[in-house]
Amino acid sequence: MNIALFGYGKMGKMIEQIALNRNHNIVAKIDVDTTEINFSEIDVAIDFSMPNAAFNNIKMCMVNNIPLICGTTGWLEDYENAVRICKENNGAFIYASNFSLGVNLFFELNSYLAKMMGNLKQYQVSMEEIHHTQKLDAPSGTAITLAEGVINETDYSGWKLDTANANEIPITAKRINDTPGTHTVNYNSEVDSIEIKHTAHNREGFALGAVVAAEWILDKKGVFTMKDVLNLS
Ligand SMILES: NC(=O)C1=CN([C@@H]2O[C@H](COP(=O)(O)OP(=O)(O)OC[C@H]3O[C@@H](n4cnc5c(N)ncnc54)[C@H](O)[C@@H]3O)[C@@H](O)[C@H]2O)C=CC1
Ligand SMILES: O=C(O)C1=N[C@H](C(=O)O)C[C@H](O)C1
What we know:
Elements: E1 2-6, H1 10-21, E2 25-30, E3 44-47, H2 54-63, E4 68-70, H3 79-88, E5 92-95, H4 101-117, E6 124-131, H5 141-153, E7 158-161, E8 168-175, E9 182-188, E10 193-199, H6 204-217, E11 222-224, H7 226-230
Helix pairs in contact: 1-6, 2-3, 4-5
The protein binds 1,4-dihydronicotinamide adenine dinucleotide and the ligand O=C(O)C1=N[C@H](C(=O)O)C[C@H](O)C1.
Family: Belongs to the DapB family.
Binding site for NAD(+): 31, 71-73, 96-99
Function: Catalyzes the conversion of 4-hydroxy-tetrahydrodipicolinate (HTPA) to tetrahydrodipicolinate.
């Protein structure tokens, strides 16, 4: 499979390693200073770039009929536009706030726990995410997905960074050294608390998930999620 990398930073380099180990070719490394792209040799593209670059990269891939895996976070105000452009061009597209198997299992666990807690008003939910100091967006895309998972199963109406109103989920974002990504969901009552936590030890899980998603999407058309890729119910 001939892969184009959009964004050749920390994740782009990790994805390159994993893709080569799985016998794929990296035919383009597109970064901020790239002036020309030869789309004819690309089977699939993987974007881990920057919040202000992702939507343009998505448009470019869809118009040029290149299936795209997008892991870049912090651009979701344009997600519905990306879906529309994919459909208009009969393209193939996956965005996931987190491509690791562990976090996708954690998303399922989070929804299950939220469903159980939905009627137990004595518990207040809160979330914390910790990442490296170079991260541009806050809260993390993963924390937003976790909050959406809780909102779908409970009466919470939204989420907010730091201080939230009573019916909103407060999310704390911490930036500590080179932390790859730690997410905690906490339910607190007067008498006890319940906490679920996912800790990434490095970036390999994110990169492997993105390459697996690229292999999966190759013969497909439409907009998909990691739930489709991993066949999670
Ligand atoms: N969904 C997931 O599983 C994960 C998502 N991420 C997200 O991926 C993104 C990248 O993360 P890192 O690699 O750690 O960041 P990074 O800062 O190390 O790399 C980003 C790269 O994108 C390049 N870039 C800037 N403008 C560009 C453009 N117009 N076209 C192509 N490349 C451009 C930068 O020059 C840089 O080399 C972030 O949004 C991060 O939140 C990171 C890890 C996992
Ligand atoms: O920027 C990162 O590094 C990460 N970003 C993603 C996010 O915003 O959730 C996924 C992972 O936590 C690492």
